[in-house]
Amino acid sequence: MKNTIKVERAIIDITQDELAQRVGVSRQAINAIERGKYIPSATLAIKIVRVFAKTVEEVFTLEEGD
Amino acid sequence: MKKHNLLLPHSFMVAGWIIASVGVVTFLLAVIFDIEFSFNDIRVLLGLDKIEVKGMIGLSRLTADSSLVYTISSIGIIIGSYFAGFSRCREEDEFTQYLRYRALTITMFLLLSSSLVVQIFCWGLNFLVVQNIFSAISPLFYMLLFHITLFLKGGDNEEYHQGGACNNRHYPR
Questions:
Q1: Contact call for B165 and A29, based on CB within 8 A
Q2: Distance of alpha carbon B110 from alpha carbon B141, whole angstroms
Q3: Cα separation, B107 vs B113, whole angstroms
Q4: Contact B94 A25 (CB under 8 A)
Q5: Which of B154, B156, B173 sits opposite A29 (nearest CB)?
Q6: B124: left (phi over 0), alpha (psi -120 to 50) or beta
Q7: ipTM metric
């Protein structure tokens, strides 16, 4: 699963740490999600996209084989 | 986020690392320099061998005629690994839960695989020794696997390097 969290963060100018605080997880979790090392739960994905005022499909996209 | 009541408080983590490290170092030193002494050797050394302790001998491995160094260091490794591996991270979230689950699954798979190999290829005293070693090092393996993957998967960052989520602190921008 691909995501555009890094781009979205840059648009609203927040760090991984700030995003982590807003959604209530560790900065390492956000870092792992951004790098595609960890796929978040539906709950966390919704919390993340709410920060960017976007829909889940706009931020997270399925890759071939997902 | 749900609290995990099965996990120990975060303060146990540092204590666990210290106890496990001391246990591993002591065990390795005992193996390298062939250090061995038993409960009886200590009694003789302290001149207490005349005192009757018949009931205590054989009560546990600590008072039996076996090496105290190996027994105590093994206990240290198991307790230390338990504390460090099963204590709550500073920020316990779904990512750390996922890594715990992954580390536990791999550890369990290796433990069962080793048990199978031991069942087939070891017998007699060797069976007990090898089986015991695998059982003793599995908590250490889990603890190391969890912390290493936590560091590798979540530690690298373009903004600042601050180690794994277990040591995560929020820094001002």
A1: yes
A2: 10
A3: 10
A4: yes
A5: B154
A6: left
A7: 0.86
Distance from CA of A31 to the nearest CA of B (A): 6
Residues of B in contact with A44 (CB under 8 A): 94
Q: Which residue type sits at B69? A: V
Which DSSP helix (H) or strand (E) runs through B79?
helix B68-85
* Inter-chain residue contact A25 with B91, CB threshold 8 Å: yes
Q: Locate B89 and state its tokens.
A: 């991270």
> What pTM did the predictor assign?
0.76
Distance CA(B95)–CA(B99), nearest Å, equals 6
Select the residue of A21, A24, A32 nearest B153 (Cβ to Cβ).
A32
* CB < 8 Å to A39, chain B: none
Provide the residue-wise pLDDT of chain B in tens; the chain has 173 residues: 555 578 899 999 999 999 999 999 998 998 888 877 766 666 676 766 666 666 555 556 666 666 788 888 888 999 999 999 999 988 888 999 999 999 999 999 999 998 898 888 888 888 888 888 888 889 999 999 999 998 888 776 555 444 455 655 444 43
